[in-house]
Amino acid sequence: RIHLMAGRVPLGADRAAVAGEMEATFIENLRYAADLLAQEDMIGLVEPINSRITDPRYFLNTPHQAAAILEKVGRPNLKLQLDLFHCQIMDGNLSRNLETYFPLIGHIQIAQVPGRHEPDSPGELNFPYIFELLESLGYTGYVGCEYAPKGRHVLGEAGWLRSYWESRGLHQGGTTK
């Protein structure tokens, strides 16, 4: 799987004025990339990135926009990379968005909102609920942790994950007791 970036609105350009041309170029580029990736049995991912905090100029900023573009591209090896941090900032309504766009999702990324820290840090998102929802939807892919650790962080040390597994009766690595 590889993230195919959408690009940024040119400095000084009006987003609405260049949207049509940017979308057409992105669609053409995605078709080209998808055809190359298909030769290697690879999946291309498009990720909406919020334009409110992270990158005001990033072209692709909502799952709705990404879904419409994926439909226009029409390649089965292109999927949605849904970063719940960006999705919450732009749209909220994560449960409905996960259910609506589930057939398009090829990868999930997480971070707490608003600080972009660990899932168990204070914030808007209820990750045990979200993880259970993903499980109920049948998600079997990876969940990428794209957050800035709030405190001391040692590779392989994720207390929030250990706590979550224990709450579900699992050992580290997801095996049952």
TrEMBL record:
One Gene Ontology biological process: glyoxylate metabolic process
Organism: Opisthocomus hoazin (Hoatzin)
PANTHER family recorded: HYDROXYPYRUVATE ISOMERASE-RELATED, ISOMERASE
Gene Ontology molecular functions: hydroxypyruvate isomerase activity
Keyword annotations: Isomerase, Pyruvate
Top-level division of the source organism's lineage: Eukaryota
Transmembrane keyword on record: no
All residue ranges annotated as the Xylose isomerase-like TIM barrel domain in the record: 2-163
Keyword presence, Ligase: no
Pfam family, one: AP_endonuc_2
Name the record gives this protein: Putative hydroxypyruvate isomerase
